[in-house]
């Protein structure tokens, strides 16, 4: 339509009629004079809308159901692909074979505990952040990493995420004096809190001052509310010393951690907690006691020496 004076007047007239009909419809309520026209339109177009809705809704519902039911599976599948890519990047030389071994151990732990993990490499140690016992890893917010996620490796608990950048994250190690984690004793289920002591064994305060504990007993993480910052069942370490019970409310243990904090390389961030507590299933097999060889000493009697008198007669 050409932009003429007549076309402009027609447009203004149509707008005025539209406003008038809207005003009449609103004021008329259920007795609106245009109600019949509206019902007629509904009669004509209603079946078409219902047909389209019936055709679209089942598809939408099916897609939604598949998405919801497969969300966990898809997430784990993505993590497996990412860990496989990390594995491929490590190569095949001597150093890389060691790193592949670390990755395999870590994936075994994640499978036993049903942890969804994101594999990462350690790219810096504590001095870069001004802390004594921290590391920097090469994954961050862009990889789904968040603050207060558990970090482990193929041996056991490493620490927790404290700071997250777009592509890197800082991990506070379990050996840091400011680090504390709830623990549970294997089999006996005695609860306590482990604290870092730098390069010395972890210090654990058991809540039961009369708990029966011995050297060689093992501990795992107790887990936190909503699994943050710690998921349950991650191996912590082995009891190396037990302070004598002094009748106090708590009992002090010293635990050698499974993870070697001075030579961390490949680690995993737990981005998806297990559906149920793995309890003690993630702990490594107990070492079999080495039998001590039994030495039997047989004494052979020697020939008796001749008497002094006999020696003198022979002379």
Automatic annotation (TrEMBL):
Ranges where the Rod shape-determining protein MreC beta-barrel core domain occurs: 130-270
Keyword Nucleus assigned: no
Disordered: annotated span: 274-315
Name this protein carries in UniProt: Cell shape-determining protein MreC
PANTHER family linked to this entry: CELL SHAPE-DETERMINING PROTEIN MREC
Family membership: Belongs to the MreC family.
Role according to the record: Involved in formation and maintenance of cell shape.
Organism superkingdom: Bacteria
Short name of one Pfam family: MreC
């Amino acid at each position: 339509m050409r932009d003429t004076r007549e076309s402009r007047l027609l447009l203004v007239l149509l707008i005025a009629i539209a406003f008038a009909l809207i005003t009449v419809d609103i004021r008329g309520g259920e007795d609106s004079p245009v109600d019949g026209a509206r019902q007629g339109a509904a009669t004509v177009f209603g079946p078409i809308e219902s047909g389209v809705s019936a055709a679209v809704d089942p598809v939408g519902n099916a897609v939604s159901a598949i998405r919801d039911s497969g969300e966990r599976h898809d997430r784990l599948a993505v993590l497996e692909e990412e860990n496989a890519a990390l594995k491929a990047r490590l190569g095949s030389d001597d150093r890389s074979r060691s790193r592949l071994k670390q990755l395999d151990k870590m994936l075994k732990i994640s499978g036993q505990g049903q942890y969804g993990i994101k594999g990462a490499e350690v790219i810096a140690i504590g001095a870069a952040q001004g802390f004594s016992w921290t590391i920097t890893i090469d994954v961050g917010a862009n990889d789904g990493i968040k603050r207060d996620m558990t970090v482990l490796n193929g041996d056991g608990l490493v620490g927790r995420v404290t700071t997250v950048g777009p592509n890197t994250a800082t991990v506070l190690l379990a050996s840091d004096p400011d680090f504390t984690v709830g623990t549970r004793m294997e089999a006996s289920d005695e609860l306590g809190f482990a604290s870092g002591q730098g390069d010395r064994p972890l210090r654990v305060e058991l809540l039961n001052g009369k708990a029966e504990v011995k050297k060689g007993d093992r501990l795992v993480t107790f887990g936190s509310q909503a699994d943050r910052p710690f998921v349950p069942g991650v191996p912590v370490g082995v009891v190396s010393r037990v302070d004598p019970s002094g009748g106090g409310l708590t009992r002090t243990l010293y635990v050698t951690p499974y993870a070697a904090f001075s030579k961390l390389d490949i680690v995993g961030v737990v981005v998806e907690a297990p559906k149920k507590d793995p309890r003690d299933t993630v702990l490594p097999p107990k070492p079999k006691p080495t039998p001590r060889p039994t030495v039997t000493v047989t004494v052979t009697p020697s020939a008796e020496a001749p008497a002094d008198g006999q020696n003198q007669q022979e002379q």
